[in-house]
Each structure stands twice: as C-alpha cells, then as structure tokens.
Write a structure and sequence with these properties.
34% of the residues lie in helices and 14% in strands. α4 crosses α6. It is of the alpha/beta class. The protein has two domains: 118 residues, Rossmann fold (3-Layer(aba) Sandwich); 182 residues, 3-Layer(aba) Sandwich (Rossmann fold), CATH 3.40.50. The radius of gyration is 21 Å and the shape is globular.
Amino acid sequence: MKKVLIAYRLKPEGLTAFNENYEITLPKDKSYFTKEEILELIPEYEVFVPNFSFYTDKEIMDRGTKLELISNFGVGFNNIDVEYATQKGIAVTNIPNTTTEPTAEFAFALLLGAARRVGYYDRKLRTPEGVSWGVYSESGLSVYGKTLGIIGMGRIGQSLARRAVASGMHIIYNNRNRLAESIENQYNARYVSKEELLKTADYISLNAPSTPETYHLIGEKEFNMMKPTAIFINTARGDLVDEKAMAKALKDGRIWAAGLDVYDNEPHILPELLVLDNVLLAPHAGTKTVEDRIAMSEEMVQNIVGFYEGTYPVSRVN
C-alpha cells in the first residue's frame, strides 16, 4: 500500500479514483499542513501532494526518505525543486488539463475588469465621495476592435485567444517557437517579435511558464516600450515580472492599467501596488472555482494511480 500525504484539505469528491492500494492523509480540521508538520510526517510517505504555493525544497525531499512521487496540485511547478527531485530519483507530475480553461477565463475577466474599471467603480461607489457620473469622467477603455498581445501561446494562451476573438479582438503573439499555421488560422493570430508585441498591443497577457530564462521577462525596459494606454495582465507566475518596475510604470502613467493574479512573493503583495487605483488584484484565483478544484483533484489523483498502476495517462515534468 502506498501512503499519500496531501498538504492541503481537498474535497473528497475529487479523490474517488484512489482505491484500496492507497492510504491518504490530509488536513481535516484546518486548511493546510505547515512546513514543520510536513517535515514531521513525510518520512512515512511514498507520495507527496503540494499546492502550487507550497515550496517543496531539498529539506523536504531529504526528510522524505521513502518519496517516489511528487504530484503537484497545479500546472506550474516552480514550487518544486525539480532538478533535485530528479537527482534523487523522485518523479514529479503536474495537472495541465483541468487548469487551462478556468485560468484563461480568469485572465479574460481581469482584462475586461481592468479595461472597464469594474473594481475601481465598485470601490468608489462604496465611499462617501462616490464616483463621477459624467459622460466622459473616469472612463474605461474599449475591448472590441483592439489588439491583444499574448506572450506564451500554449494551452492557456490559446484558450484566452479564443475568448478574445469572440469579443472582436485581434491577436498577435510571441512564443519560444512559432505555432503551426493551422493553429494560427484558428485565431487569425500573427506571430511577432516580443519587441513588436510590446510596442503595438493594446492589451498584453503574460502566459509563459516560470523558468530561469523567463525570470523578470518583463521589466522597466519592456514597460517603457508599451503604449501609455496599454493594459497588462499576468495570470502566469509573479517572478516573470519586475514588480517594482511595474508599480512605477503604473504610478507614472507609463501604462494605463494592470490586472494581476500572481505575485513575486505570494501571498505578500508589493505595498506600492495596493494603493494604486489602476490595478485590479486577485489572490491567485485563476482556477478557484469549486468545480475546477474538484476536477484538479481528480487529475492529480489520476497522475498518482496512473504512475503506479498504468490505468491513467501521467503528466510528468521530469
């Protein structure tokens, strides 16, 4: 029997694919185990399930002397020292399928919310001073007919493009590799250099993975290339962006607005961002619906059962 340690409390509906070959431990009276609790428990477990915000480092892997598999509860895996896991012969899996549509959905929600100033209007209407009801005062920006530049045109980027096209937007994109012409034609998308994308897009969505090569992919130089009316969206990972440079660009009006779901030091948010009216903030909620968290749990369990029994496809990252 394989023992599975799950760091976060998950609904039982998503764990039904486990059978009698697995013994499951997860928090019952609180939301998550602390790192100290994980370190105490993990020597007895073959499988560890961290959340995308729980960093699984060398200390945890060294303490987990029986570890064979780390089944990540998320599509990104920068929360795991994958290189060290590989050295120790520990397999690492992620869940790319169930995270695609909800993340793209939320990215488009941030795009619309930032453009049409939904969060700003809501906040101001709740204050004594309110908001101006004038014809042009405190206006937002339109989406229809505008150009969306997508940096990272993978599963989520393409899902976002589908929503944008349905709303009358034009798509340009930059990727490590150009997509097949048949895929480009689905979205009438045009491949451009990163520089051209930054200079010409009205909306810029960051959907690239977190790797050493993409660290601070967007910084002061890149924000200075953008239009003063540009809106920047990040639902990828916080470390892809120099947050201080972004806060300065927003404060100085170098760009018009931003919609953010991820941060460089989660759950802490750069204080400068908290006081800006042209930033729409969310707590890494791209997949945060009850339905999708259950679906994510199912995909995570299938990785584990598939790894040991071969009954499901396994999404390995090492």
